[in-house]
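Question (not urgent): is this output format expected?
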Amino acid sequence: VDDWEASSQIKYLAEELSKYKCELDSLHTSFIARSNRKPYVEAHHLIPYSKRNIFDVNIDTIENLVTLCPVCHKKIHAGLEEEVKSMIDVLLSIKKDALKSSGIEVSKEEIYRYYL
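Got this back:
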């Protein structure tokens, strides 16, 4: 299994576990995807994949993935600083224990710096 295929499998698992809902707000809706006939969501690495070399452990894991509606996914990358911080706070509250259990320890302030 190459890296892309493994990453792809983790993405699908994250989508299934979230029941194809935005993890920031389950009431956010998108559209039905042609590929799987499920509500369209996007998998997002809470700790950006581009920061993988900072960590001694693999961060391309289910513990580091969240699913977001397309608007929230764009917003976390391009939104106003205070909104991005608020989104990170919510997602970190959901994922903190899972991250820690997989050996990924990172502070909220570190994650802020990765995005802003």
